[in-house]
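Troubleshooting log. The previous run stalled partway through. Resubmitting the same two chains, unchanged.
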Amino acid sequence: MKSCDLIISAPWVLPVAPENAALSEHSVAISGETIIAIGLTDDILQNYSAADHLKLTHHIVLPGLINTHCHSAMTLLRGAGEDQPLKAWLEETIWPLEAAVMNDEYVTLGTQLAVAEMLLCGTTTFSDMYFLPEKVAEVCLDIGIRAQLSFPIIEFANAWSSSADDALDKGLALHDQLKDNKLVHVALGPHSGYSLSAAELEHIAEVGLRQNLPIQIHLHETAQEVADAHQSMGQSWIERCAEIGMLGSHVQAVHMTQVSEAELKLIADTDTRVVHCPTSNLKLASGYCPTTALREAGVTVALGTDGAASNNRLNLFAEARMASLLAKHAGQNAAAATAQEMLYMATMGGARALGMESVTGSLEAGKAADLIAVDINSLGMLPMYNPFAALIHGDAGNAVSHTYVAGRALVADGQLTPDSITNLAQRVQSWHAVRRPI
Amino acid sequence: MKSCDLIISAPWVLPVAPENAALSEHSVAISGETIIAIGLTDDILQNYSAADHLKLTHHIVLPGLINTHCHSAMTLLRGAGEDQPLKAWLEETIWPLEAAVMNDEYVTLGTQLAVAEMLLCGTTTFSDMYFLPEKVAEVCLDIGIRAQLSFPIIEFANAWSSSADDALDKGLALHDQLKDNKLVHVALGPHSGYSLSAAELEHIAEVGLRQNLPIQIHLHETAQEVADAHQSMGQSWIERCAEIGMLGSHVQAVHMTQVSEAELKLIADTDTRVVHCPTSNLKLASGYCPTTALREAGVTVALGTDGAASNNRLNLFAEARMASLLAKHAGQNAAAATAQEMLYMATMGGARALGMESVTGSLEAGKAADLIAVDINSLGMLPMYNPFAALIHGDAGNAVSHTYVAGRALVADGQLTPDSITNLAQRVQSWHAVRRPI
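Second attempt completed without errors. Output:
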């Protein structure tokens, strides 16, 4: 009999590895931060004695979801500037608002709200790209959520950096601070091709390769971006990135609503990772990422919510459902983008995109205990013919009962546990009452 | 000082009439089944004394939503036969399953589950099209939800009717029974052009006109349906319906994913109502209803979930969000399909489609007290810049605290009140355990 800290038992366990397995009456044994065994509940209980045993009687246990693209603090701008064309939305609403509210308190509170919302919906890892990433790191470490912080690199002066070089200096300093941290990692976050000079973009590509750092970049978000690139430099941003070493398995290309066949081949040949943000792309009328073609070419595709200002939610289950529905529609094939495939995209797809697949994304002995439980007794999920469909096409984001990150319960019985994010509704309302910019 | 039964006060009231009004610190006064006044809370409290006063401190009050197309009992088939092409889904899964489970218990329990789910998500009126409509009527009357029952008329023998004539006889008998009922109305439900003979379809059109009955029909759901019609009869089903008097303000054309310019003109000129079921159309890869073009032509467009077997949810707020996102995407215009317009579509649009606009669909003195309250303290809806956006792009379907139909609270503080639908989860699981067809 081996001892461990926690056993979680459930009628259904979907480990994602192997990809399509649905295990009934299984248990997960956890020691410290790590999964040490998965097996039939009878076997696990015979072989392990645990300090705690969480017996879930009407739940699906699965890996925590991975939200691969977010601008977290923008939760505080949720619902501002609705139904505007993209240019007016950015220039008349978002940028002036950000300028008016940007400070430590805004980033801290907005990130707390985002993390709370993500944990309640079953997300255990997210990637952020926002100003004052030092504050974002503090929030993540305080709460205990896993994160990649892609610090924003932009040519022009902004609330965090005076130039691209300044952003690089500050971001790499944050990387130095965090380089031994198990939960929070730093990545390079060049905002986009068009918001950096040619030399700056090349320099960032070179830093990524030299320092072995992941790079997350908005790439081919709109047709306009691609048309402008062709006009100003005679090639697309994907082609430019290929030339300067900014494609590869360490690069996370976000949005990708415009991809020619030749560009798809470049992405596939370099094993570049693609982040699909379906809701945001629809809401801003940016287009649609051809996920089926990318996946058929062997490309790892992950899912992101984007910021709450263009979504307005941070519910990755909702993105997985949207990704499935849009792929069926776009391909005129009801059999496309199965629930199993979308669950993979929302978990291992995200882990692979972030280079974290040895740590999280599936339930396997040796990986971190990043896992969630979904209550299948909710009326909108009954009856249960197919646990994959219940998760993806039911309303699983509103039925998450437990969220564990590295073995710690951050949501238990549907309630957030970390002290710093209780009473958030009241704090957000107070902030809004005082700071309300519009 | 006038007396009334109930006053509901809230920081926000969105009455939908006038269409874009957002009233702050308003109250609704209700007497029996009817709204008798709406005004500033201070004024209402000065002029009305109520037996009950519901003081909502962090809520939006608005008209109940109208789910204009559903096959309710199919909730019990939710999640069966996922990710199949349409033909296999129908022929290999849905039809054999229905044949295996169809009986009074299935229709009663499945409809109860559907109504419970809809009430919890803020729907106060729905239109159903399913076998054994007498059982559906019993459930609706028992619970007290408003409904249109479009009884299914199909050429071939099925669990309810032996022929189209038999369906008409039974359905019209149900209509006779219910013709003085305030909550539940009967409509003609010819399944589709292709599932009836030419003579039968003409006969139904004639019955509709003669008896002044609404008609709901699946029309142009798929490209295949349109192609087949052109091949077999040299015209589309819309054109055929125009010839036989089956277009008009009493006709609810469901799906409409294929609409030529000439057909759009026929729909607009006859004031035919269109029911958009965006999620179901995507999930079955049927196509997309051109809602913006229809609305610009003056057509009343309403929203439906379709049955849970092809959705898998009955959350009309989710359909309103999907309708907005798809219209922005299809029109390549982020300013299209505003939250205000989608709220209208989900309320007055539905009421107009069902011919119930004098009774429900907006909060106005004299109309039925069909209204809901949405809790805006939920983390995913904060902060509150814009109540329309919070409802449509937040997750309002999961934040409904109260649902009133004709002045009766069917959901209070997030809990269902009718006795017959408490303990539903257990009853559904028991049914599934015993009857489970796959």
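Takeaways: Chain B has a mean pLDDT of 96. Chain B touches chain A through 68 residues (CB under 8 Å).
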